[in-house]
Design goal:
Helix content is 8%, strand content 36%. It is mostly beta strands and 337 residues long. A hairpin with a 6-residue loop joins β16 and β17.
């Protein structure tokens, strides 16, 4: 037989045999891979990443359930007031806002920055706890009527005078330092939110989502190194980190270098959780002052108990995006209970 005919004949036999074998085989069902430990249902390990921008101009509200809830500029506000029964004024430390009491009650006569001295400055404790704001819990006897100078950074000064601290609103006068008149504002309390926000340049502003919609915010804020300076004064330093929701949320951290995936509910039970907002804070990363490169301490495990009494573990794994630009914290989290 001609070699080419012999080849075609052999190929035909092979194809027929393959088809016959295929027809005789039973249809196979897909094999389900066994679940990876810690990956089942609502308790699976999840991943998140937020973009603050290389200059950290953006703050991001985040929910374990929903992911990113809201982006916004951290410089959009100067001061905020609590909406709870405990009245307090909080400053935007990330922007560098400071208050200076003048001891005066005549708004029109406060026209210079003579009260702006290092020893007279007022600032908040970054823990965000009740009573830890720069002015403390506001009282009509102590705070209503006094004029405060507000330094909002870059040499811009304003002044504010509280007129009334009501159960449903804050009434105050504010304006540029050199103005004798000012403008009166009323900030209505809305208990759906933790705070109501105010900008000396824009007026009343909307900043945060409803308090039940988020678990933490990644933002620029002010850390205070108490008694750090040689003269015993405090060092104020802007940092970028995580602050928890002040509404029914607590957090803690582990420093014993547990494996994140093996860290269990039983191990977490040994740790105390605190209501302070800055427990997780900013020191999950360090920067090389020579190269400017950030290194994330991925061995640090953090715990957050949310407003629904659910316990989560979290760790940061990167500070750079896919283009190697800084300011994009990446993290892993998993519900423990």
């Amino acid at each position: 037989m001609h070699p080419m005919k012999n080849m075609r004949f052999s190929l035909s036999l092979f194809v027929c045999a393959a088809l016959l074998f295929s027809a005789c085989m039973k249809e196979e069902k897909p094999y389900a891979l066994p679940p990876v430990p810690g990956q089942e249902g609502d308790f699976k390990v999840q991943h998140g990443q937020v973009n603050m921008g290389e200059n950290y101009e953006t703050q991001v509200y985040y929910s374990f359930d929903k992911g990113i809830v809201r982006y916004g500029g951290y410089q959009d506000w100067d001061i905020s007031f609590t909406t709870s029964e405990v009245p307090e004024l909080w400053m935007n430390g990330g922007k560098g806002v400071l208050l200076y009491p003048t001891g005066k009650k005549d708004y029109a006569t406060v026209l210079s920055s003579e009260a702006v001295t290092l020893s007279n400055r007022v600032y908040d404790n970054p823990n965000g706890l009740e009573g830890e704001s720069g002015l403390g819990i506001l009282s009509a006897a102590e705070h209503v009527g006094e004029v405060f100078i507000a330094d909002i950074g870059d040499g811009f000064y304003y002044k504010i005078q509280l007129k009334e601290i009501a159960s449903s609103a804050y009434v105050f006068k504010a304006g540029p330092l050199e103005s004798t008149l000012g403008q009166e504002y009323t900030l209505d309390k809305d208990e759906e939110y933790n705070f109501v926000f105010f900008s000396f340049e824009k007026g009343v502003v909307k900043v945060e989502p409803p308090k039940t919609d988020w678990d933490f915010i990644i933002t620029r804020y002010r850390h205070v190194y108490y008694g750090h300076n040689s003269d015993g004064s405090d060092e104020l330093y802007p940092v970028n980190g995580l602050l928890t929701n002040p509404y029914k949320t607590s957090s803690g951290k582990d420093t014993l270098r547990y494996d994140f995936y093996e860290f269990s509910t039983e191990q977490a039970a040994a740790y105390t959780l605190y209501p302070a907002r800055d427990v997780i804070g900013f020191d999950w990363k360090t920067v090389n002052i020579n190269t400017g490169q950030y290194k994330v301490h991925d061995w640090k495990i953090f715990l957050i108990k949310d407003q629904h009494e659910r316990l989560w573990k979290l760790r940061f794994v990167d500070f750079y995006d896919e283009n190697n630009k800084k300011g994009s914290p990446k993290f892993e989290f998993q519900r423990l209970q």
